[in-house]
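Entry 12.
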Amino acid sequence: MTRSRVASPRAALVAAALLGAALICLSACTGAPVQEMSDARQAIAAARAAGAAERAPEQFAQATNSLTRAEAALQRHDYGTARSQAALARARAQEALRIANRAKSRSDSS
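Predicted 3D structure (tokens):
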């Protein structure tokens, strides 16, 4: 015959406290995406300086729109969305920069 073990109220309280501490630690580890936001802003600034707003307007607008969504998510403390939108903004800004540089090279060689 097996004997069932019922946790004491104290053991349950300790387990709940440990679980709470673990959750707090995990949420602290996934804090605000400061580096990702900075990377996105720098990529957009580089694209702007290369003339992407004129030479790659669609990609540049997508990049700035993604950054706007990232900033809004950051304000809501939705760090997962902020992180992914910042990464998307950076990638789109880099694409806009490549297009702008190609267009500039073509016009310079003409």
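Annotation: Residues 32-109 form one domain. The helical segments are 9-29, 34-49, 52-55, 57-75, 79-109.
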